[in-house]
Amino acid sequence: MGSGHRASRRRAARPSLGARLSAGLGARLGPLKEGLAPHARRLRPQYPRPGRTDWRRWVPSWRQSLGAVGVSVGLGVVFLGVAYAATDIPDDLNTFATQQDNVYFWSDGTPMARTGWVRRQAMPLKDVPEDVRSAVLAAENASFYSDPGISVSGITRALVRTVGEGDTQGGSTITQQYVKNVYLNQDRTLGRKLTEAMIALKLDNNMSKDKILEGYLNTSWFGRGTYGIQRAAQAYYGKDVGELNASEAAFLASLLKGAGLYDPALSQANRDRAVVRWGWILDRMVDLGELSKSERAKYTKFPEPLKQANSYDTGKQSDYLLELAGQYAKKAANISAQEFDRGGYQIYTTFDKKRQTELTAAVTKARKDAKKDSAKKAKTTHFGASSVAADGRILAVYGGPDHRTQGYNESNATTVPAGSAFLPFVYAAALQYGISTDRDSGKTGVTPQTPYNGNDAVPVTTPEGPYWDRDGDKVFAHNDGNRSWGQISLHTALAESVNTPFMQLGMDAGLPTVRKTAQDSGFLASSFGAEVPALSVGSATPSAIRMASGYSTFAADGKHTEPYSVRKVTHNGSKVPMNTPKAKRAMSAEVADQVTDALEDAFTGDHPLAAPATARVAGKGGTTQDDKAAWYVGTAKYVSTAVVVYRIDLTKSLEPLKLDGIAGEPNAGLPYEIWSKAMSPLD
């Protein structure tokens, strides 16, 4: 009991900290409270108000109204300050806002196709003409370079609409619109509008006006599937933004209000609206001092946009071209797949539009002809073709009937052997490096007139004697139709496509040497199998591209350039460094000329009236002993084209089937028909 009493005394003797502070504060504020009390009583609403009658009893005094407004303004300022401080500029842009398409161009620079989900190409502001910038500013935000990034009056109008009509459209500066494009979604809510304004204020303090305008021009929607002023210029006028005049720019600026309302292609009403807004924007540019009256006087006629934009979409044959060019661009320019998929690349290909059209038409006709001859065989017939320039440029390819239904590229497939189309490389190897028929003696040279045994069923020999295969059987060389030619010069043997001399010539020159010559001329190492006598008569399986590339080496005086499909890559207009193939010596110019002479005689012998006597056209057919492939390969005017026809029933196996006559006669059937049309005119 004693201890409790003492505790009570201690508590009573020492008040708490809060009590002491309250007491002290109360003592000090006491006089102030007494002074403010009358004013507080005046501000405090009293209803009904004493001393008033009728409805006036319920109306606050002016002091009360002024106080309420002051409190509201103060709270609003505090709220906006807190909101501004709490708002950060997002680190990441919307994925959609940064996504661009990749655009592919023909060799002449005209657009070929585009890939990607979004049609957008970012353009540096320096590449956007002043008239285009001025038109956009006049249409959307004339005070852009002087405002703080937001429009107070515009936001107020938006708030009124939100309360009255539930619509927050309107009232946005270019900065706010840019924020909405790249950081936020398109929701029309008051919360999104407030966030937009706060980010716009901060962005205006952290980013230059030019950068904001550049971003806005590159991310805005212009209709016709396009984002950004560059794609809009191409979609509506078929030109780059740098080529627009003030009149065209004024129309494109009108689309920022809503392309669905101003694109003339959609309706007459749209055109009428567009004409009115176009004229208003030009007049507005004059009022702002951005366009002279004399310049304005030139634009009296509405600049009609294209009726329909050229989409340059992919499909059918173009997809084969894009596949080749896209793969090459990534490798040669060291672009990762992820970077490439983000878009913004312009790929300038080597593909010649005219040659591509002619090659496609030639194969399409051949397909129809094959179907007429034998519909059943035609279903399993495949065509691969390619044209390659002597400097390595791939000019055209035929990859298949439709990439969307057949994903693999016939022109790039290593499916069937080269057959007798390979003989020129055996000939070149022997001419370049000589031959050896005796282990104890060195190499001796050969010439086009060196004779070889052209008879059928000649045994293949080595310096030690006959060549035996793995089964212990002696190997014999055979000609087409088992024809025997007797002693024949190498030149004539190639011109007449006689196999037996070359099967032995390959052994004499050395199969590794033959393979090296073919690889130096463009064949891939992966297309070769075992180094056995069959190598000399075309056991390698090159693609049509590689076969055409190999023959182009002869047309290039013995120099070989790796085939390539892209000559230049840019990213949003800036050149991307890339590795371009350089020509390398595969054989001497003299050897290349000797091979070409024999191929000229081969072509003239099979098709004496196909080309003028002054034209240097070289070419020959290629057949395989098992009748599973038919080729025609040849050069004219420094362009080499290779065509192959074969059969595979993909529903059953990947093993080639016998042609069984579907390709026609050697040197004059479907492969040659396609080749001659693709290479026409031969003069």
UniProtKB/TrEMBL annotation:
InterPro entries xrefs: Beta-lactam/transpept-like (IPR012338), Glyco_trans_51 (IPR001264), Glycosyltr_51/Transpeptidase (IPR050396), Lysozyme-like_dom_sf (IPR023346), PBP_transglycosylase (IPR036950), PCN-bd_Tpept (IPR001460)
Ranges for region Disordered: 439-460
Composition-biased stretches (Polar residues): 444-453
Database matches in Pfam families: Transgly (PF00912), Transpeptidase (PF00905)
Known catalytic reactions: [GlcNAc-(1->4)-Mur2Ac(oyl-L-Ala-gamma-D-Glu-L-Lys-D-Ala-D-Ala)](n)-di-trans,octa-cis-undecaprenyl diphosphate + beta-D-GlcNAc-(1->4)-Mur2Ac(oyl-L-Ala-gamma-D-Glu-L-Lys-D-Ala-D-Ala)-di-trans,octa-cis-undecaprenyl diphosphate = [GlcNAc-(1->4)-Mur2Ac(oyl-L-Ala-gamma-D-Glu-L-Lys-D-Ala-D-Ala)](n+1)-di-trans,octa-cis-undecaprenyl diphosphate + di-trans,octa-cis-undecaprenyl diphosphate + H(+); Preferential cleavage: (Ac)2-L-Lys-D-Ala-|-D-Ala. Also transpeptidation of peptidyl-alanyl moieties that are N-acyl substituents of D-alanine
SUPFAM superfamilies assigned to the protein according to its UniProt record, in alphabetical order: beta-lactamase/transpeptidase-like, Lysozyme-like
Domain Glycosyl transferase family: 109-285
Domain of life: Bacteria
Leader peptide range in chain numbering: none
Name of the molecule in the record: Penicillin-insensitive transglycosylase
Domain Penicillin-binding protein transpeptidase: 464-645
Residue spans crossing the bilayer: 66-86
PANTHER family named in the record: BINDING PROTEIN TRANSPEPTIDASE, PUTATIVE-RELATED, PENICILLIN-BINDING PROTEIN 1A
UniProt keyword Membrane, yes or no: yes
UniProt keyword terms in alphabetical order: Carboxypeptidase, Glycosyltransferase, Hydrolase, Membrane, Multifunctional enzyme, Protease, Transferase, Transmembrane, Transmembrane helix
